[in-house]
Amino acid sequence: MRIAPTLRVRLAYRLAYRVLLALGGLVMAVTQVGPTALGAAASVSALPVQRADQQPHQASSQLSVRVAMRMSAEGVAEFCIDLRDAAAETRLCPGQRSLLVERAPQSRWMRSRSVFFGPELSLWVRARREGDHLRVGLGIKMGDEARNLRRTSWSFEWRRAPRDLWQRTTARTVELPAEPHPELWDQAAKIVSESRRLELDQPAPEFRLPRLDAEHDRLVSLSDARNADEGGVAVILVFWSSWAPYASETLLMLGELAQDDPDLRVVGINVYESSLQVAAEFAAQYGDGMLHLSDAHGAVAEHYRVDGVPEIFLIDADGVYRGAVRGPAPRAVIMSAMQQLVGGER
């Protein structure tokens, strides 16, 4: 039987494509995964990124992959996928990644929606409830090839899971036939992976944010702000917007207090602003002597449960959250809170 030339060409292309996929390979494993099943409760994808700076990023065809998981106090489990190369880390949170575990069907695999991170490259999370355990896995699709990855050790006792705390699996390497989308790494940093919810007398959630002024491109973390490597100082975080009532008075007062106390640092976080230029001019006029950061999309404010602006959060020299002053407050109230934070008479 003779094969027509056009058919031979098609078969040759198809064979070459499958050979390339095989050579590209997939080396990936995830162990000891934590809680979370994926169900019908869809939620908006988020892309927080950890970066040492904002320099242009060179993508790689080799990635380290982790599964991040969190169990809420209500028993709702959530999964995200952390990707990392030699220079940066990003978190992809697919839709339909949450489930009220106690109501999940027994012994039935459920999966999130796919997240696309490169040309014909996608990942998803799978989970199955088996009594008090969640069996979990990953799926990856490269071109037309889709694979499910799981092991018997990928399980978690979901009833004993710590609540409102991100946990991650150990990392494994994925060899890809194509480079990921470069825009994965170009997002502004937000809350750092594994940060827990805001809780009194517990470590404050770590974050990384860009400075409000455009002259500095290095991201600043909470640890940087409180000089953690040198013993640490107490920090006052004030979330503010230029349009908010009493924002100017609050910034002026906190700036004066910070200049009078070397053991205290005030960090202004601009949020919900329509124009960064307006915010920068406002900070220069009313927030002199303070470090100002930009939380343009409000991710850090949401994690800190900011109800309105201005709001003040008190963090001691060890990085522990000690309390908050919600909304505009008289000087005496703020002074009293600061005395409890750093001690001493003013």
Helix content: 10-25%
How far apart, in Å, are the first and last alpha carbons?
A: 97 Å
Tally the helices. 6
Radius of gyration using CA atoms only: 24 Å
Instruction: Quote the average pLDDT.
Output: 75
The percent range for strand residues is: 25-35%
Return residue spans where pLDDT drops below 50 for at least 5 consecutive residues: 1-60
Q: Please tell me what the overall shape is.
A: elongated
- Biggest sheet overview: 7 strands, antiparallel
According to DSSP, the number of beta strands is 19
Order of helices and strands: HEEEEEEEEEEEEEEHEHEHEHEEH
- In terms of structural class, how would the helical and strand content be classed? alpha+beta
How would you describe the overall organization of this protein?
- By secondary structure, the protein is α+β, with helices and mostly antiparallel strands.
- The chain is 19% helix and 32% strand.
- The protein is built from six helices and 19 strands.
- It has helices at 5-24, 222-225, 247-260, 276-286, 299-303, 331-342; strands spanning 49-51, 62-71, 76-84, 88-92, 98-100, 110-111, 115-118, 121-130, 133-142, 145-157, 167-168, 172-175, 208-209, 220-221, 234-240, 264-271, 291-295, 311-315, 321-325.
- The strands form four sheets. Strands 1, 2, 3, 4, 5, 11 and 12 form a seven-stranded antiparallel sheet that branches. Strands 6, 7, 8, 9 and 10 form a five-stranded antiparallel sheet that branches.
- β8 (121-130) and β9 (133-142) form a beta hairpin.
- The chain is elongated and about 60 Å long.
